[in-house]
Design a protein that fits this description.
The protein has two helices and five strands. The protein has 88 residues and is of the alpha+beta class. The chain has a single domain, classed as Ubiquitin-like (UB roll) (Roll).
Length: 88
């Protein structure tokens, strides 16, 4: 089962530590997460179920940049969901 982590910027709606879920890809894992923590959905996905532009996804230490939701997961994967910050 994959471990899903959210950064501190999402702690108002996400739990501390890992959320352990099943899923063959990022989309499936997130579906399970949103089933437990529905408030997270609006922070991560837009109204057309696409990742918001300010969200960064890392799977097993690799920054996933293309087809993020379709990116495969292993049973022991670590998935990090982060808000990409910009500005000065």
């Amino acid at each position: 089962m994959a471990n899903v982590f959210f950064t501190a910027h999402l702690k108002s709606v996400a739990p501390d530590g890992a959320i352990v879920v099943d899923g063959h890809n990022v989309a499936e894992a997130l579906r399970h997460v949103f089933g437990r923590y529905p408030m997270l959905r609006g922070y991560v996905l837009d109204d057309q179920d696409r990742l918001r532009l300010h969200i960064a996804v890392f799977v097993d230490g690799e920054h996933v940049r293309k087809n993020m939701l379709d990116h495969p997961l292993r049973p022991d994967s670590e998935l990090y969901i982060m808000q990409a910050l910009s500005g000065g």
